[in-house]
Amino acid sequence: MERFFDPQSVVVVGASNTPFNLGSTICNMLKDYLHYDGNVYAVNSKGEAVNGYPGYSSIPDLPQTPDLAVIIVAARHVPGIIRDCARKGIRHVVIESAGFSEGGEIGEAMQREIDAIARQNGIRMLGPNCLGTLSSRNKFCCFYGVNPSLVEMNQIFESPGSISYIIQSGGVVVLTLESLYYDLVGVNKVVSIGNKCDVDEADLIEYFQKDETEVIGIYLENIADGRKLMEAARKSRKPVLVYKVGKTKEGAQAAMSHTAGMANNDRIFDAACRQAGIIRLQSIDELHSLPKIFTEMPLLKGKRIAAFTNSGAFGGISADLLVQAGLQMVRLSPQTQEKLKKVGQVFNIKNPVDIGPAPPQTYLDIFEILLSAEEVDGLLPLLSVWQPFVIDCLLELMKICKRYEKPAAIYTPNAISKSVAIRARHRLPIFETTEQAVRALSVSQTYFASLLKRNLTGDRPLWGAGLNTDHRSTGEALS
Amino acid sequence: MERFFDPQSVVVVGASNTPFNLGSTICNMLKDYLHYDGNVYAVNSKGEAVNGYPGYSSIPDLPQTPDLAVIIVAARHVPGIIRDCARKGIRHVVIESAGFSEGGEIGEAMQREIDAIARQNGIRMLGPNCLGTLSSRNKFCCFYGVNPSLVEMNQIFESPGSISYIIQSGGVVVLTLESLYYDLVGVNKVVSIGNKCDVDEADLIEYFQKDETEVIGIYLENIADGRKLMEAARKSRKPVLVYKVGKTKEGAQAAMSHTAGMANNDRIFDAACRQAGIIRLQSIDELHSLPKIFTEMPLLKGKRIAAFTNSGAFGGISADLLVQAGLQMVRLSPQTQEKLKKVGQVFNIKNPVDIGPAPPQTYLDIFEILLSAEEVDGLLPLLSVWQPFVIDCLLELMKICKRYEKPAAIYTPNAISKSVAIRARHRLPIFETTEQAVRALSVSQTYFASLLKRNLTGDRPLWGAGLNTDHRSTGEALS
């Protein structure tokens, strides 16, 4: 599987100098954006070179056997090309061309044909009808059609992160990467699986157990093999977040015209997810907004939450949302209330704790009191950033969370643009709405409960995804 | 009521030069930000001038009877001040001080006392425990504590708009105005009602029927008089959007410590809202994100929606969301499908209509075909902005919507920062997620149905809130 993400040599079949040629966009990205240092070959009818990469008119002519073939030609040519790959000894193929099982009977027949050829020759296949792979650490990407709006993807390669995505649709890949760019956590690997004729989401969940991945985000339009997926998820020691289209009959039908899935029964899927510890996402945005609760904060090990706010209104809102999310507004003990009273400037020493104008030390004292309290499992701090020192307090809060191994889901009631700017500048895991912050706590607790049920907690510190402290400090990959 | 928003003279009781004095922030805003041209007086114990506004040591000393008194002193002094106001003939008072019924028995007694004095003397009172009023067209605002983060409020006064807000909490006022700054629609008036001892949400709904308001946004922590509110809403010819805290027992309790409301039964409230045509908001963000579907688009008069996308994935997602929101994925007629086929470059001529790379004219042809189709009530265009011409197409779409009197809820699947920038630069009503766009359609249709039920459709064009075309073209207020 590694060769899909870190090939030492690649052939792009279908790359040419014809205007609007899609294969050439892959060559351009490898050369100009990524400065990829492996060998790259172009195959096209004229055998012409593309952006300096040598060109050949057929795969058998290549001077070596590349680790990976990326195919982006009209669907009808693909079966012949797979045969050529087999003959040349190529064992990893990404088929980006569309026009297979998502496009009617002829396409279906062709997909069966390439499947048979690949199986007979021990070829692992990604796609067809997909965007390919990206690995930030290996500085490799074979997405086609990268355009100016994605140039900012450079950021992805400069600051590799710990989320890996398995995404059935190219459009969702682009949206998610773009959104993540404005969020906190970086990308490890991305793979678009399209019609997933061979490699599917279950294979990839398994693969992501052994690399730098801390959180696995998945977007599915259909389930290839439900039993296999659930088995892979059940064994996963990393949170598996899934958004699935097709909750309704109409949604399933629309998805079918896109990546050729069968309609799956959504209720059964939902129950299976709960069994396997899969976290089902409520919106596509959660693919980029939720992972930070796992990567930046300890897991939430119980349901008792203390809310803390310097703008009273949000206390009521957060109490509503916490209860609706299945969490509890903790009843603070008399001792805790007594400590809060001594801090001074506290309007309300019961939960939600509400303060007026106060110096930074007041904030820190309250964080300490609440997170050290035995009855409190986690914190929901809702702090309007009307004074810059609030940011320093939040940075300090991160340390207190680590000390007590309890999470805080931070929300700063400001216009989203301002919150996004503060988050980026100060590397603070700030959520964008009260709803999102509460949801993050709920998901963290659900995940912790599923680890317990699956006997996967072990004796490791349950910080972040529960396993990542080692490679973070050494910069090395887990094995 | 007009005097609360457009007084010709004001006294700020409690404004002084003491450090951190809150009343002085009101004087500073009137003078330095708003260049308010009425008379302003400060009342404080020393009788000192504040930022050039003449100071007096008591209300009876004032050289005239001001239209409005803004009171921001310790709660225990307020009853005496109200008596002074009565003696001086002041008939409109904003009490911004906290420490009344939200703060225990003594506060409750004081609130009853000021209520009695005001009633006996025919004084209309806003608050206590509130932030006051803002009127963009009159360039008036008596909020206290305006700080650098609100300087951008200047924008509010430079581009008056058509949303008026009734908000029980100061914190929510600040968040909503800040968020609206990055959204499309401008503000008309804002009023924070706090403990609403006298003037309440129902009075204000009635008042907003007669000014430039097109949409009324309300944030409530409790209901003062349910029957009165529902009666005012039922008669409203402008959409009334309400977010209410206290859906759960815990939320209601938390709200009580903030603005002193009684817990209200949420289910009864919900049913009453449906009866009265009130649109209940699902999140605070909807206070700023939803109004544009009313101000920028015709109402949705039926439930049959066509989705259109240039990134297949979003077709499936939107079908799911539309059906879950109670709308329908329209089954396109054979004639409509035939027309779409003739356009070319259409992957899927059934709903969701999905296209690949195509020139601008293709987009415009499809918009025209779908919006002119008798079976289509509204459009959900989900267009990735990967080519600048998409923006021109969307601007053209606005005109087509107006021609056929059918709305489109636009979503451009891009990172939120990019969508926000495009929206502002091109004045396009772009929603921030698929969920938000679908929700806007659903709300528009619900509102139209309630107008029908309440016999309020009349024979006016149902563009925007159904009443606003006149003053938009002439720039004048409706009477």
Account of the 3D structure:
- Two copies of one chain form a homodimer.
- The first copy, chain A, is of the alpha/beta class.
- Chain A contains 19 helices and 20 strands.
- In chain A, α6 links the parallel β9 and β10.
- Chain A is elongated, with a radius of gyration of 25 Å.
- At the A-B interface, α6, α9, α13 and α17 of A face α6, α9, α13 and α17 of B.
SSE layout:
Two copies of one chain form a homodimer.
Chain A: H1 2-5, E1 9-13, H2 22-33, E2 39-43, E3 55-56, E4 68-71, H3 78-88, E5 92-95, H4 105-120, E6 124-126, E7 132-135, E8 140-141, H5 154-158, E9 163-167, H6 170-181, E10 187-192, H7 201-207, E11 215-220, H8 226-235, E12 240-244, H9 249-259, H10 266-276, E13 279-280, H11 286-289, H12 291-295, E14 304-309, H13 313-324, E15 328-329, H14 334-343, E16 346-348, E17 353-355, H15 360-372, E18 378-382, H16 389-404, E19 410-411, H17 416-426, E20 430-431, H18 434-453, H19 469-474
Parallel strand pairs in A: 1-2, 1-4, 2-3, 4-5, 5-6, 9-10, 9-11, 11-12, 12-13, 14-15, 14-17, 14-18, 19-20
Antiparallel strand pairs in A: 7-8, 7-10, 16-17
Helix pairs in contact in A: 3-4, 7-8, 8-10, 13-18, 14-15, 15-16
Which keywords apply here?
homodimer; 479 residues; alpha/beta; 7-stranded mixed β-sheet; 6-stranded parallel β-sheet; 19 helices; 20 strands; disordered C terminus
Q: What would you say about this model in short?
A:
By secondary structure, the first copy, chain A, is an alpha/beta fold.
**Cα Rg of chain A:** 25 Å
Total E-strand runs of chain A: 20
User: So what's the overall shape of chain A?
Assistant: elongated
Q: In whole angstroms, how far apart are the ends of chain A?
A: 15 Å
Give a quick account of the main beta sheet of chain A: strands, pairing sense, barrel closure: 7 strands, mixed
Structural class of chain A, by secondary structure, is alpha/beta
Task: Please work out how many helical segments of chain A DSSP would assign.
Answer: 19
Percent strand of chain A: 15-25%
Q: Helix share of residues of chain A? A: 40-55%
Mean pLDDT of chain A: 88
Q: Largest contact between protein chains?
A: A-B, 69 and 69 residues
Strands of the widest sheet of chain A, in order across it, are: 8-7-10-9-11-12-13
Low-confidence stretches of chain A: 465-479
Quaternary assembly:
homodimer
